Amino acid sequence: MKTHTLNVGLVGYGLAGRVFHAPLIQAADGMELVAVVTTDADKVHADLPEVEVLPKAATLFERRDIDLVVIATPNDTHFSLSKAALAAGKHVVVDKPFAVTLSEARLLRTQAESVERSLSVFHNRRWDGDFLTLKALLEEERLGRVVSLESRFDRFRPTVVDRWREKPRPGGGIWYDLGPHLLDQAIQLFGMPRAVLLELDTQRDGAEVDDDFLCLLEYDGRRVSLKASALVADPTPRFRVHGTRGSYVTFGQDPQEARLKETLAVTPEMGMGAEPGRLTLMADDGEAPEVQPHPTLPGDYPAFYAGMAEMLLQGGPPPVPLEGAMQVMELLEASLDSYRQARWVRLKEGNSVLRQRLHRR
Question: How far apart are CA 82 and CA 100, in angstroms?
Fold first, then answer.
């Protein structure tokens, strides 16, 4: 069992690396961010003057003092960089999505097992405050038997900016950006669905990749709707859940991302202060349902790297087990099959995709 501090190397210092990973790594007990790989050394020096900057990932992987490598680069580089880091004997955290294809994810899983190194995916929105609140309500069965969930992640970004996510390259577009978040949350709540249907659209002037999606997940007795768009100016519910005893609705986004962008640091109040949700429950006397505000639990993004440190230093459980990340990849790929073929795609036991048609309802 290790007792020393884990030396961490971060590959990539764009939005993901600078806003999410670097601050959370620095806040984790038992971890020290010692090197960043980027071509923009000035940005790192301005934010993290004590951290070494390296121009190439290979140089980082060769260093014997590095225990954990974090991959926070464009999606189509996740596979090659993770593969090289594992081959160098490093534990690896890769930003979502795990990879661009399910086959790449499977190869990485096999490699991690063969070299006996930890491999985890940064599904940070498991620790959004509104999601933690919803999860607690379902565990307590406050809503009764849940029959539908609508999960939306809408933003108003009418102008197409010059960045890799807006380019027609593998892993670009809103589906690979926000789809993994919403799919992972659905799996955490309800497990794998029995079928999936995906619609993608490109709506903004000048857009080259999808900027709107609607994904339907079918369960026995339950329908889950996942939606995201770059052209929604009027606020929509983040979650809308209906059950046999009542409903739960939330608005607004978890505040942690905005606060990390502002401070580049973890603060005690970072996950607090989200607006309450609205809980409508059947009255005890069977009369009209009672509507009341329901407080939102604090979000906790630091839990991911705290969990990684505990796992690697003390032998605790992984914060995101690899099997869950594989299920997200399974659904990402099955959904794209659905979109390309304009039909429902059914998933059989064991999560392998059967290419059989389901009738629209």
Answer: 12
